[in-house]
Amino acid sequence: MNWTALPFSKHRGLSLPQALFTEPGWFFWAFRLPLRESLGYEASLLYPRATRIRVPQEAGDQTAVEYVLDTRAGGLAAVQLVPEAVGGDGGGSRSFTKPYIDLSIPSQLAPFDKTGGRIIVDFLKVSYFGSTGHKMTRERCERFFDTSHFRG
Questions:
Q1: What are phi and psi of 24, to 5 degrees?
Q2: Pseudo-torsion of CA 57, 63, 64, 68, nearest 10°?
Q3: Which residues contact 109 (CB under 8 A, 6 or more apart)?
């Protein structure tokens, strides 16, 4: 897909896939705006993809994503893979699991949680690319969201 460069904001010149890898909370904030024309269309494609990213599985593994809460700050403290059988919500637990990576979790927990956004992007980069240091160029960000890494 030919992604549109943002004509506004501190992310001016970036595409929406780049903005998701740079600052996912900003994307979920901007999604609530009345984005027009191609940006509105692109955001409507990206939202379900960014909230339902498949967990890469090794042969025979069945893992889920555990989101650990920071009880003092009210945001996201960590993200990790756990055996799928561990899944579920412990009621008053300080964590919960999902069968997929959801980049919107930090902004759901605390609207301006930039640390949580960095934590979840780093988790995604390690899961798919093997390192938090993997440079996410415009082409790589867009290719990631153009592929089939998503749960229907």
A1: -60, -35
A2: -110
A3: 69, 74, 75, 76, 116
User: What is the predicted pLDDT for the residue at 67?
Assistant: 97
CA distance 97 to 87: 5
Determine contact, residues 26/12, Cβ cutoff 8 Å. Answer: no
* Residues paired with 128 in a beta bridge: none
Consecutive 10-residue averages of pLDDT for the chain (152 residues): 92 96 95 89 95 86 92 91 72 84 96 93 96 96 93 74
Residue-wise burial string across 51-61, b where 16 or more C-beta atoms lie within 10 A, e elsewhere: bbbebeeeeee
Instruction: Show Cβ contacts of residue 75 under 8 Å, excluding neighbours closer than 6 positions.
Output: 69, 106, 109, 110, 113, 115, 116
Contacts of 82 (CB under 8 A, 6+ apart): 63, 64, 65, 66, 97
- Residues 101 and 124 sit within 8 Å (Cβ to Cβ): yes
Q: In three state form, how does the secondary structure of 123-134 look?
A: HHHHHHHCCCCC
Q: How far apart are CA 72 and CA 28, in angstroms?
A: 23
Confidence (pLDDT) at 92: 56
Q: Name 54's Cβ contacts closer than 8 Å, sequence gap at least 6.
A: 100, 101, 149, 150, 151
